[in-house]
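note to self: dont lose this again. the chain is below, predicted strucutre after it. 754 aa total, dont forget to put it in the shared folder this time
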Amino acid sequence: MKLSRILLVDHDGGDLERITESIINLNMGPTVVARNEVEAIEDVKNRDPELVIMNICESGAARSVNLANKIKSNHQKPILYLAPKSEINLLQSANLLNQSNCLIKPFTGTDLRYAVEKSFLSLENNEIKIKSEKDFLNALKCMPDGIISTDIVGNVTYMNPAAESLTGWKLSEAKRMVLQDVFSVNNGLGDEVPIQFSNHKGGNSVQNIFLSNKKGLRLPIQNSSTPLRDQDGSLVGIVVVFRHLNSTNDDSLVQDEEKIDSIRKIVNGLVDPLLLVDQNWRVTFANDSAINFFDFDIGFLNNYNFLESNCPSFSKESTASAKIAMENREGFRFDVFHDDKDLWHELIGHPYGDGMLIQLTDITQRVKQSESALRTERLESLGLMARGFAHDFNNLLTVILGNLSLAKIKIPNAAEGYDEVESALSGTIRAQNRIQQLLTFAKGGAPIKQSLDLSGIVHEISNDIQRNELINYDFDLPDDLWRVEVDPGQIKRVIENLIRNAEEAMTGGGELLVKLRNYGPNSNYSQKLPASLVHDYSTNYLLIEISDNGHGIKENKLDKIFEPYFTTKSDANATGIGLTVCSSIIEAHQGSIGVQSAPGFGTSIYIVLPVLSTAHQRGDHKALTPELLSASSILILEDDSLIRQLLVANLINEGYSVSETEEGSETVSTYHERFKSGKPFDLIIMDLSIPNGMGGVDAIKEIRKINPDVKAIVSSGYSDDPVMSNPKEYGFDAVLPKPYKPQELNSLVKKLLK
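---
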């Protein structure tokens, strides 16, 4: 969803910059900012925004309420309020709030996006409702039968032109008059026939009676009445439908036929399908839209039973409700899905004569947006749960992974138990990958980048995947690949997911190719990639190609495969988010992803990633001498005792002097004492989060006040935390995501101490 025009109104400045940045970053639409009432009114009038976002501060709440009332009364624009909790009562007392137009401060960017989507959906639903009501009113105006509606106490609220003509009363005259004064009927013998509407349940049976109009003329009519109820089923009035029992002279018949023909042309011009059915649900009339939609055979139209023929896919509950409504002469409203057309309709039934007037309004887009919003909400909830779960599980995996790695080093290759340790280590690494996959699919997260040769990752995938015996796997990996700066876990998950998709596309077997190539002006790769992938052909890229010769993808679906919740798979469990996540990961790495496919010829997915400059292509670093090792001291902040013991043991084994702390304030104090002694720590390794204590972020701020040049590593199981993707912004030199192997720890420590 993307709006084309958003107006942001802010009286006091407040957190205006952050809100504007969030709207831009979330790609929700161009934003115009109004800083006072005059600007806001002018912008609403001239720029015609689709949505007004009103940032309310405590000091300017009253002015915001006054401005909102002016916008709502004069321009009818939807408003999303960003308000502190203290001002909610003020908004409620001014009758400005509904279920979807207020976001309480403070809020995240995700909260803002969801609130905007709900406001937009509410706007769209309202527009659909208004259009539907207008179309239906136009249809009522064209009906040859007179139609009068009343409120709960019997006052006239609506008359169509036919009712005006037969009664002699104009709607402007009759409005708020009592029904009996406008619609005065008798039995032909002078006895009045009362119209029952209060506590009316079943509706009157059709009667042939006489109407005394405004001029005193007595007209023979056929009459029926039905209760009018709201969406909750509460009685709100009555609807009377009546028709003139005309004489049969030729002139009258000609006039009636011409009138009916004119009405039919107007009704046939309606976009929404419109049907009339009798009391047995046989279709007696269908406008052109209905005939085209249901593919009615006009010659046998009356043979169609609306509930039993090949008409909307009613559920059993909907069918039962419709039958009860027909019996009770009540209206009905529900949504139906047409399997063969992949469309949703809101179906509205209005009692008409002995049968029903049925209107269908296309709500497919509304339903899809609602489903999308619900899925987004569920994914966000899953993300919150997954984040906490991953943190705790990663701490456990760090202990397991570390001890298994140390055990592998200490046990000779040929010794008993070595293979078991190797297998347990491999399983732990796979568990680590699955946890990261859960986080990525549920919540995302910015990449934690390293300089890598991707062939190592692809080799690892090649060894880990469970190969299909019917598929021939070809991993084409040159020795001279350029290095890239990527998050190894995220890129691995992208490649694994694409390999799985390729396997699923070749149910009968086939060829699967994973190819890595240097791509640039001076490379030997001859294929010309499209401009959608490569924006600058003078720049060097790393190309990843994953191809199969499976069933392929139809051309009309190619531009949708990276959209959220779109899937070409028939599997009911397919979520349609796998390729979306792949695309978002590649975009976060400033890369591009594209597809080429054709039915029967297979599919090729292309990924291009920017490569490091020539100066950064070497991955080797100067090794530390024993003298340097012995001179290096490290301070640890870690609240988990098992992880802390593992860290200490591993670093001591590598020749470092190690001190340990459990809480951030203790870390700051320990570092301060060593700094005053003239022998500061060479490196600090800090846990990001310490429950009920000072964590790494706050601790490093205090330590850098003591020594701005201190070197620090942040470590956490919250791999999607912004600190982990932007460590330097928070005062850290590097990150160490949990779980990690001792080799990874040692390599990072040596890199920082070189």
